[in-house]
# Entry
Amino acid sequence: MSKSWRFDTQCVHSGEGVDGDTRAIRRPLHMANSFELPTDFEELFKTFSWEHADKYHYTREQSPTPRYLEERLATLEGSDDCIAAASGMGAVAATLFTLLNAGDHIVASEVCYTGTQKLLAYHFPRFGVDVSLVDTSDLSELKAALRPDTKVVYIETPGNPLMNISDIEAISKLAHVVGATVIVDSTWSGLVTQKPLELGADVVIHSATKYLNGHGDALGGAVLGEKKLMDQIREYGIVHLGACISPFNAWQIMRGLVTLPLRMEKHSDNAMKIAKYLESHPKVKMVLYPGLESHPMHKIAKRQMTAFSGMMNFAFEDDLQKNFDFLRNLKLITHAVSLGHDQSLILYMPGAFFFDEWVMLAEERQGKYRDIMGAGVYRFSIGIENSDDLIEDLDQALKSVN
Ligand SMILES: *Cc1c(COP(=O)(O)O)cnc(C)c1O
# Structure
């Protein structure tokens, strides 16, 4: 393995190799949950220490196939080490429970993935952590929320589900002044289009369920950063809290990663074409895509991303029934949660229960998001199908609604 290989070569080769036992040209899927231990004191000691990543004893702690995935992801994200987790939420919880203690303060995106939102809004306060939820795409709000005891600044960019872009470089600088650890949930960038560590962040999180796996058939998560912190997160967050990845899922995600650069290019190209199509459609009222100049944070997105990935929001109708007619008439695009899959998925988020079900915002904080939400918006994950087929599907479904 050479560190100098370029990104797409690393996607194919890093963490891969010829199997020592069989000479198979792909590394094996090891489903064993336990490993024979050495009968020598020194070797036994090494097996139970994190210093030796390739000495295994129990799969909740570490095992070969997840370790291959961790090696590949660490190379791709340009980080010291990686922890694979059972899901994106497993990665988020493992990281935050490791870093935060009672009495600590965290500043986080007020609109972010619903699971992270609820973890921060409901659970960390139960353990005496002081949580400030702000609009992290507004630097003045972020700055005002920082305190000398702020331990963590947590941002999600592009943000789920309303496409907020937060300035990773500027936020990292501000947060480091008070000594806070900057965590970026970079799931929506699909890794290829954004490199938070190069922009100054300390930790990157991915839901590998999405673009990294890319085929809609495995759950997984990843945390990336300095080895010392990763060792801690592995012990407290994964071994003690238990969200270790299944070797089978790790193997699927490892396989998905081979085509990541090809897929992200196609997701981004398709999304740009579809965003332009929707923006020019007379029935469509609103399109939010970071690649469009009309996106309020387009300039920041352009600065920190190399392409704009495959996620967008749009809205065309206030009438609830008409939105369901549209969904019913889609033939190719599927109404479903999750995202970053090969196939296009669309989720209708009715404004009527958005703030009760997805984003737990205090009444006085809801204003600007209510303006975006209106009666409801779509969260649209553009797949890697032919963009003409996707546009034709949207076109006929929009036409069918009167
Ligand atoms: C989906 C998602 C998560 C959670 O990931 P799971 O794999 O579903 O647990 C976290 N963050 C973002 C931005 C997501 O889109």
